[in-house]
Structure formats: C-alpha cells, structure tokens
Amino acid sequence: MKTVPTYSLYGVNSNEPLLEQLHFESIPERSGINDWEIKPHRHERFFQVLYVHQGSGRALLDDREYPLGSRTVVTVPPRCVHGFRFTPDVDGIVITMTDHYLHTLLAGVPDALPLFERPYHDQFGDPARSERDDATVLAGALELFRAEMNAVSLWRGAALSALLSLLLVGIARRASGAGATGAQPAGRTARHFQQFQQLVEARFRNHQDLAGYADTLGISPTQLNRICQQLAGRSALQLIHSRLIVEAQRDLLYSDLDIKQIASTLGFADAAYFARFFAKHVGQAPSAFRQNGRARLPAPQAAR
User: Dihedral sign, CA of 304, 95, 204, 283?
Assistant: First the structure.
C-alpha cells in the first residue's frame, strides 16, 4: 500500500534520530547523487530552509510547484510534502532543524512562529539593488551562514545558531510584509496561540471539541477564539478544520489509500460524512480533488 514517504532526512528512515538539532549540507552534495532530483516526501518532526544561491530548478510544496532561481529561499514545515528538481549547475544549502529547535530559536518572538507553519517561497534578487532592508538582512545572513558552514572555526556552532536566528527573522519579516515595525501581540496571547497550534497538531485526528482545547490551555473557548482571530484571522474551529483538510489533501494526492481509508485515518467513522466535510471546505469531492490534483502535479523528470 502506497503512502506518502516520511523520512528523517533525504531517503533516511523516519525512525532514525537526527543526532543533532541542526543539520546542514550543500544542495549538490545530496541531489547530485540522485540525478538532481529529490522525489516527493515529508518529514514528521523537521523544519527545513532551502537556499538556492545560483542555478535553477523546481520545488513541489504540497500541491503547488514553484520555480527555483538564483537567490531563492524556500521553507518547508514538518509534514509538508515536498520534492525538488535542480539543474546540474545549482549551488546552495539545505538547513534542517528539529521543530523544537525552531521554537527555541524564535522563543523571543513567538508571534513569528505562525509564519513558519506553511511552506514559503521567496526570490529576493540582488540585495545591492533592493530598496528593502529586509532583503539585505536576509541575503547577508544567508551569505554569512554559508561562509561559516564551510569554515572550521572556533565557536562555529554558536555562530551558526546566531546567524540562523537572524536568517529566520529575515524570512519572517518578508513573509509578514510588515517589516520590523509591525505591531507585536502580547506575550501571553502569543504563547497561548503557540500552545494551541501544538495541541491541534497532536489531536486533530481525534476531533476534540473546542472546549477540550480551551480547558487544556486554561482559558475559555471565547478567549481561544479571540486569540485565533487576532493572530491568524480565523476562528479556532476553522484552524482545526484547516489542519484536517491539509492532511486529507496530502493523502489524496500522494497515497493510494482509498477514500474510506483516508477518512478512517483522519478520525471520521463515516466516509460519506468525510466526503461532505471535504467538499464543504474545498469545493469539490475528494475523488475529484484527487483526479484534478494529480493531473496538475509535475511529471518526474530532471530539471533543464
């Protein structure tokens, strides 16, 4: 039975632990031995940043394909199905970290964490010609990270961690479009939202009611909805349903599980109810989404 491949790193069984919280390598180092193609897969616990310094290719992030060119950054959150095709002249890096390490690095700015819950693609061009300070900061952090990565220097790990924090903040600023002066929500509000996201990730298949989430957080359902509206622009229930839909779409596109099996893995006792739920949120039946979505997926061929 075909399901979405889940790896620790490229082609490595997901049960094998990442020996350190941070791993990095050049793009040619891994893709070159795989004919410049990394087939669609996902990671259960890891967040990745891919930076193409030069060369080109294509990135598949869930059900969308994006171009890769010089000075392109892509972020891949845990459980996002992703694959890449590169041209042989590609140069760049892939940074992999545990989701816990990501949260540690951004502990001082927890309101930035929601920006890393979805895949992100950004081609920021030549920073010397950019009028946006955030592009300059991001480009500088990436170049310094690449240089430190290739060096053998005293306190290298500490330097890489510091640069990675700067890199993530640069990505978050560009992803938010707010720059460095955006309004910051209260610390407790941001912490509750972060904890709610973690609970959703752990429980979305259980179909727990909103009161159960709120009770775990020690707040009322009304407070939880207010926090979600403030930081995500959607209600708590909409966020829970969105997580179910994302997982359903991944299974429909990348596995050979039938509709009844997918419904069961997502906690739906009745496949017909799952089909109605999916159609209400996506606008088409699961079978139609699978057929149409697979027709749009890129063919597995090498980049040119």
Answer: negative
Provide the 3-class DSSP secondary structure of residue 165.
helix
In sequence order, what are the beta bridge partners of 97?
Answer: 22, 47
For domain 187-296, give the CATH superfamily: Homeodomain-like (1.10.10.60)
> 88: which 2 tokens?
């042989």
Which of 191, 165, 119 shows the shortest CA–CA distance to 22? 165
Phi and psi at residue 23, in whole multiples of 5°? -135, 145
Which amino acid belongs to residue 193?
A: F
| Mean pLDDT, the chain, whole residue set | 84
The domain segmentation of the chain, as residue ranges, is 22-181, 187-296
Report d(CA 46, CA 96) in Å as an integer.
Answer: 7
CATH architecture of 22-181: Sandwich (2.60)
Give 20-64 pLDDT, tens digit per residue: 578 889 999 889 888 999 988 888 889 999 999 999 999 999 878
Question: Can you give the pLDDT at residue 6?
Answer: 62
Say how far apart CA 255 and CA 76 lie, in whole Å. Answer: 20
What is the predicted pLDDT for the residue at 11? 47
**Composition of the chain by helix, strand, coil, percent to 5:** 50, 20, 30
Angle at 239 between CA 254 and CA 228, to 5 degrees: 150
Contact status, residue 282 vs residue 96, Cβ threshold 8 Å: no
Residues 180-201 have pLDDT tens digits of 333 445 578 878 988 898 899 8
